[in-house]
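Q: I'm building a small set of examples for a reading group on sequence design. Run inverse folding on the following structure and report the sequence directly after it, with nothing in between.
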């Protein structure tokens, strides 16, 4: 069985090396055949092993054109000629452990990380999720029919997706963690302690800031008045995995 992994990147925040490093991390941590697809508006610099496909079409309100709402386009029928189970990964996350179990876990069901800041509220985080291609296309179709009431009800696209799939399954908590919400020491200890990587972790997601390179170097882009608590010590284990 070929394992299929897809990612998306658009705009200028994430250059090609983010997708290339994601491919390298997945390849090191997945056994057997792998198909790795990057949906992007700029394929310049992608490794030959990274299959380029253009961003899937979607009619987005101008306000949300470059927000994560664009990921709703992945739920359309016939996406990129893909079939079977597909694992989506955000382009800025870090793979730190073997991933084979992701395909063995609840095959045929929609699996997703539980959102770290909304535990128990039925909301998944779309940094890491798996589904069977061709299922749940109503997520895209409903959005395309009329997105206005969807945006009025849901602040984030992952809230909308979660509401549309109430019977989703969450990954084991220890597999997928948030760098900022799971690993960062709380203020003021973040000034003195380096974030630690648990041995059982397979994926570290970077939501918002800092990005992997910023956390690696101990830098956090934040307004001046927030820098007192938005601080991260240089994190050496990122260099080991994010390559």
């Amino acid at each position: 069985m070929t394992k299929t992994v897809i990612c998306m990147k658009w705009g200028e925040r994430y250059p090609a090396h983010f997708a290339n490093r994601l491919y390298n991390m997945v390849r090191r941590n997945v056994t057997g055949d792998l198909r790795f697809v990057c949906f992007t508006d700029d394929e310049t610099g992608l490794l030959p092993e990274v299959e380029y496909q253009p961003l899937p079409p979607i009619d987005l309100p101008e306000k949300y054109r470059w927000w994560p709402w664009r990921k709703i386009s992945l739920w359309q029928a016939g996406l990129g000629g893909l079939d079977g189970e597909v694992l989506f990964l955000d382009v800025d996350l870090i793979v730190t452990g073997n991933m084979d179990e992701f395909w063995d876990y609840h095959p045929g069901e929609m699996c997703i990380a539980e959102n770290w800041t909304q535990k128990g509220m039925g909301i998944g985080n779309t940094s890491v999720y798996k589904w069977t291609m061709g299922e749940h296309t109503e997520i895209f179709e409903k959005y395309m029919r009329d997105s206005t009431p969807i945006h009025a009800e849901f602040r984030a696209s992952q809230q909308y997706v979660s509401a549309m799939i109430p019977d989703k399954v969450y990954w084991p908590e220890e597999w997928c963690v948030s760098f900022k919400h799971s690993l960062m020491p709380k203020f003021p200890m973040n000034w003195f302690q380096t974030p630690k990587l648990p041995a059982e972790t397979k994926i570290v997601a970077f939501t918002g800031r800092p990005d992997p390179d910023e956390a690696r170097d101990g830098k956090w882009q934040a307004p001046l008045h927030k820098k007192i608590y938005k601080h991260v010590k240089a994190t050496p284990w990122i260099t080991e995995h994010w390559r």
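DSSP finds eight helices and ten strands in the chain.
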